[in-house]
Write a structure and sequence with these properties.
Strand order of the largest sheet of chain A: 1-2-5-4-3
Radius of gyration of chain C: 22 Å
Largest sheet of chain A: 5 strands, mixed
Order of helices and strands of chain C: HHHHHHHHHHHHH
Shape of chain C: globular
Number of helices of chain A: 4
Distance between the termini of chain C: 44 Å
Chains: A alpha/beta (177), B mainly alpha (413), C mainly alpha (354)
Helix content of chain C: 55-70%
Oligomer: heterotrimer
Structural class of chain A: alpha/beta
Helix content of chain A: 10-25%
Largest interface: A-B, 36 and 42 residues
Number of helices of chain C: 13
Radius of gyration of chain A: 22 Å
Strand content of chain C: under 5%
Shape of chain A: elongated
Amino acid sequence: MEPQEIAEKIKERFPDEVIDITSFRDQVSVIARKERIVDICRYLYDDPHLHFDFLVDLCGVDYLDKKVPRFEVVYHLYSIKYRHRIRLKAQVPEDNLRIDTVTSVWAGANWHERECFDMYGIVFRGHPDMRRILMPEDWEGYPLRKDYPVTGPEKEWPGFQEVLDKAKAFREFEWKE
Amino acid sequence: MEGINRNQPPSDIRIAPELHTREITLNMGPQHPATHGVLRLVLELDGETIVKCTPYVGYLHRGTEKLGENRTYLSALPLTDRLDYVSSMNNNIGYVVAVERLLGIGPPERAKFIRTMVAEMGRISNHLLWLGTHALDVGAITPFLYVFRERERIMDLFEGLCGARLTVSYPRIGGVRNDVSQKFLDDLYAFTEEFPGRVDEYETLLTVNRIWLKRTKGVGVIPAEDAINWGLTGPTLRGSGVRYDIRKFAPYDAYDKVEFEIPIGYNGDVYDRYMVRIIEMRQANRIIRQCIEKLPKGPITIDSPFTFPPKGSLSRKDKERFNKDYYSRHFTLAKGGPKEAPQGEIYVATEVPKGELGFYFISDGTGRPYRMRIRSPSFVHTSALPRLCEGGLVADVIANIGSIDIVLGECDR
Amino acid sequence: MFENIIRPETLEPVVRSVINIGIILINIAIIVGIALLHVAYATYFERKTIGHMQVRLGPIEVGPHGILQPIADGLKLLFKEDVIPQVADRTVFYIAPVIFFTAAMTSLAVIPFFEKFVIADINIGLLFLFAMSSLGAYGIVISGWASNSKYAFLGGLRSAAQVLSYEIPMGLSLVGVMIMAGSLNLSEIVKAQQGYPLGLYLIPQILGFVVFVIAMFAETGRCPFDLPEAESELVAGYFVEYSGFRFALFFLGEYVGMFIMSSIAVVCFLGGWTVPQFILGIPLIGDILSKVPGIIWFLLKVYFFIFLYYWVRATVPRYRYDQLMAIGWKILIPVALANIVITGLIKLWVKGMI
């Protein structure tokens, strides 16, 4: 099925949810509200003519000062049976960084959602294991947000003093002349 | 297999149920000889049976996506070398194909064939390393040394081609860096002549070895539906019997002009994934031969603001034509590339040896990507590791890690 | 061996016992020296053999063709820092390698290297060897326990289960030999083989031989049964926390263990220091070969088995824990038992009792 047709079909089924449909170089994006995103995904998965059984990718995007709402969660879907693909985008406003998890539809969404949380701070409701994944667990801030600087002031790692103390304590075992 | 219920830990056969027993928590990694880098697994063991397996990744996180957003399209290319450092050529190609699709340009015919050729060389070199380390993990030490003999030849060929052995950065947006020499083609052809015999050699050591069969058959089984649902790609998915290969279904470069077959497995166990990769090596060899035979003549880069004509590759007439803006273009590129790219967003996937490597670009019209997302196969495959390991034995964890072929540089980005 | 020089009956009893002790001490010194030199060069032999099997050269830098490499390694281990984990159970941690090494070295006492050269020619030689090889398992288990490391602990557990399980088929496989020889004394077993085809027990005891060779690999924890020290799973297994010379003791013990197992195989199945009769029967060659001393034959046969160890290591992957147990209990033990029954029945039949 052509991507444009799929987008129309989604819009037909969820007229209130779909905000916009954009297209660039034959790739069609469906921009939707976040409230019923699991229903849309479930529909895309279950519909016999669409059958998007493969979640290719899930990631977040930060549109700081470019768009309102600020965040988007992007789902790239593919159907191995019919070989068609669609891009689904759910808008997440800055004041309510919550969206439902799609791990019930695609098990593979698990780590992608964790990464999205790690990098953007978007919380996925109902996720089985919502923890940071790539960054250390005590990391402050969300690195891929646009207001997170690439280089910043030299800040000492909080655990550094502890390591120094330990090193001092171990000095007594050192080789002495 | 025999005597062990693979789906459930044998909790119902405790002799004294009132006796309180606790699982051992075994921390495997980040420094461990079999975790292929810095993967950390926390295993909860009941005897030797795995009750729970939790992977921890991120020890190699370098923020490639953030770095890419702050660089021009041209200067982000070397970052992709460092994703999957075992098959950097394929990563480069995945990146440049995605950028080309975003810019709406395409490489000339000769460059397409050269790229296909070097991509398959990268595939062979990756699969060789995978075979060696996987066999080493399962306990066979000799294949490791054998595969390095052939891998070294590919590395030498890469060195002759572009000067680098591991992090090549050879493809360019709109073409390749430099043309292939006749000597390179002759050496490569000689390699393809003898490579199938070498694969036979590895197979005599493993394919029908009873111990190898016992260690790999029926281990880490993932059925086709589950494999798709978990988002597995590449040989790992094909081992489960799903015929999905981007080279065939969404061809890029010259893959629609060469003949090759997609091997698929049947049971989705470690052995099938092994066989798929072994056959893929033979098919890659076949593709390389076809590329050498069909290699057309012509330019190796297109004329676009994003490309830079390679030294010595231009005829005198071309040079005069280019000369007018040769230096100005050199200056622009050296300063970081053109200041504009079409506004839009694009997701382009290519088939790297490990699976589907996708680049998702959001362009806001400037010369830098607004968002560069890398969908790496290793990340997804690692996430499916608990699904493969739980209920098995400690030794199966090692076999499973080997069979999904992960590189942590790509997983952590 | 000194009977012709000293006539014992002419000496005082005290002097006689002193001389006896002296002779035994000299013998022990010779055997320990040979064993340690053997270990050093067995590693060299292993690295060279496997190296050439894997299209590389092996040690080449230290001395001509790397011949001094084992000595360099030994010196390095001697001078290495001896690291003991803070949480280790110190006393047991110290004792474990000593037990392992002592058990391995003690076994050498009963092995007849050539005619009449054996430190203790006891009539329960085979049983003594089994006892010592089981004792070695204690060293492994308590080293795994004392290290207080989970990897070492798992390695120790695996090793205990493996050694205990394979002790049984190994013992059973030699029962056939005992029945045929009618003795547990190793020298007697060698002599008893002379009357059989080719002068070996290999042909009549082929089942026992196959079971023994497989059990021998498992007992010494070598590939494909190297689970206790599987480096890709358990890093190094039970000795992961050991360093310096404590590690070297485990290393020495393992190679001496290989030597002993090969010696048992040679003594029980390949006729020890004797030359097969059919070779001696060949004119000219047989005359020359009969002049070759027994120790050379013995070592040649032992080194054939040691080569087999290396050859297998370069060829096959490792078994999994449950598969290892399945082979031991479901295949080797029934086969060994069948071998005992068949041997016994044939012996009775030959004697005319049935």
